[in-house]
Amino acid sequence: MSNQKHQPLDPDLRASLPSVNVDDLIVSIKYYVDEEFAHIKIKEPGVCSHCQEQPCLDFCPVQVFSSDGQGRILVGYQACVECGSCRIGCPMKNVDWSLPRGGHGVAYKFG
Ligand code: SF4
Ligand code: SF4
């Protein structure tokens, strides 16, 4: 199965959104990656192949979700900045989301 069904954001909508350089914002984040526990998982991989627009490929600000080109979604949880969007953005409620275990995750520098 190809990944042709994923529709990028409408160009007019994209142009109307504020310009945000995520790379600039995340440069000061420190990551404490838990290599033994993935806090973001796909519950049922087969569900993703029936998901029409696969919005997870767009709504995650750091592209944790990617397509394998065969309809399956890969999850690079190590890059997660814990914004919480995938708790509500998946129309199938197919993302198993939790905070990283204690001592892991991201640390934001303010000021
Ligand atoms: S939005 Fe949800 S169901 Fe659709 S492809 Fe992404 S994780 Fe799978
Ligand atoms: S919580 Fe935010 S940054 Fe983490 S995977 Fe979900 S959408 Fe991406």
Which descriptors would you attach to this protein?
111 residues; alpha+beta; Alpha-Beta Plaits; two-stranded antiparallel ribbon; two-stranded antiparallel sheet; 6 strands; flat; binds iron/sulfur cluster
Description:
The protein has 111 residues and is α+β, with helices and mostly antiparallel strands. It has a domain at 39-111: Alpha-Beta Plaits (2-Layer Sandwich). It has helices at residues 11-16, 22-26, 45-48, 56-59, 85-89; strands at residues 30-32, 40-42, 65-67, 73-75, 95-97, 105-107. The strands form 3 sheets. A two-stranded antiparallel sheet has the order 1-6. The chain has a two-stranded antiparallel sheet with strand order 2-5. It has a two-stranded antiparallel ribbon with strand order 3-4. The termini are far apart. The mean pLDDT is 88.
What is the element layout, followed by pairings?
Layout: H1 11-16, H2 22-26, E1 30-32, E2 40-42, H3 45-48, H4 56-59, E3 65-67, E4 73-75, H5 85-89, E5 95-97, E6 105-107
Antiparallel strand pairs: 1-6, 2-5, 3-4
The structure holds iron/sulfur cluster (SF4) (2 copies).
